[in-house]
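User: Hello, can you help with two protein structures?

Assistant: Certainly.
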Amino acid sequence: MFKYKVLAVLIVIIYFLQPFFFSNGGIGADSLSYFGIAVDLPHPETNLFPLGYPVMLRMIYNLVSDWFWTARILSLLFMITILSFSYFKKFYFRETVLLFTGKTCFFVFTQAMSEEPFIFFLYFLFYFLHQLFSEEKKDYKNAIYASVMLICMFLVRYSGIYIYASILVFFFLMFFKLKNKLYFKPFVLFVLLSGLGIGSYLLFNYLHFGSFTGENLRGGPVGRTSIFILRSILGVTNVTDPFIGIKPASNSFLSIGFQFFLLLLDVCLFIYMLKFFKKAKNDSNYYFHIFLWTTTLIYSIALFASGWYQQIEEMNVRMLAAANFAIFFSFLILYFKYSISDKLMWRIGCFFFVFLTVYNLKDPSNFLKNKNKIEPQMLSFVGKKYLFNDEKNKVTTTNYHIPVINKSFNYIHTNKQIGSIKENIIGTLNPKIKWLMQDTIKDKSKVLYTSEINFSAR
């Protein structure tokens, strides 16, 4: 057990520090939107995103007065809470630590995004439902706690409604098998309370903003091109892979071919996981594992389908974080229960933890250094209301050399582009400034152009 404690500490340290070496500091377009909502509190102007994550950000910001540090501290609290709870409650500590070596946690907890609290509350939803299913008694307490977790998930991401849909599907599929269980009535209470909480927030949005989830603020679907659909399908199948989730930006033949290679690997992994799932048929936690697998399936399908009706990005590690988290957790629990030794899983987890760390730092930057260069310049642009990246034509290309085959190739990283880096830092320093997709503002005096910011300034 000692080695898992050491690994847990290393995970927290590395996840916390990594964004300092990212060119964007783990800050993306959605991060800036959440910062913008947070800075408007207690009078939010939009319901494009739910208020849960902005409220958390604002609480920390009131203490540290810096949005980047706010995001890092909040992430740190999420990680420490999950790992400490798992250890002291003896709730699958080894499995939880190895969960953090996977691609989902690695990606989520190094970025400033709502997936962090979403996964945080999802973990505790799993805990309370596990306790509910494990004990043959009328456990109303855990049912109430579970409903609070699910409502909190919806309060930080609207996709929490897909988790609720998963629960409804699970409930109807298992109805006749669960109705004779002592925890059947508590589970019904959980379903009703969760639905009431989610419905109440939707009603609040409609009465206050005039829409349920900001649907009037989203653009139309852009994912109906054949290449987008193909990449999204490949993204959905990749949900079974705990560790590898590389999605090249290029649509070249080599890129698509590589993703098809991953598809073959994903199918093999799914078959391997399925063997362990079948072993759980006589397990006391069988229904808990059915719930986890149902969550993975329904969440993935629902999210993929939603791309036909609203403007969302293609299916990737971020979009399918909850689904991958659920199936990986189920697999780890069953693996440790039905395997003689933990050596294989331990070695694989450690290998990919090191691999993902090195991969993320293959071309390190110094976010705080860049932030410190831009911050004093912002004093000259206090009256600016809009931000536009007019440096999209300045393309930064990274060269990689593969020593084994002595070949080199160039790759354009979205987050390494000079204009994009400036956008993220400026938005972090001034969340009230609205970034523009197109330079459509007639009064140019209100627009801050990224070219006006000098990176060589000291």
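That covers the first. Now for the second protein you mentioned:
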Amino acid sequence: MPKYRVYGVVTATKYLGEFEADTKEEAEGMAWESGEAYVSVCHSCSGEVDGAEIDSLEVEEIDEQD
């Protein structure tokens, strides 16, 4: 009988900051270049998580009236 390795894909978010830009695309580019687009995993979790990285960014416009 074959054996299988099974991995769970974990999804999370990390706040990267606020960026003043003309477009969402420009803000996303600024975020990628900001030095904050990384994932840090504590020593305890590092034994359970492999390859933690940011695959994509989600950009939302800030409503200054809030």
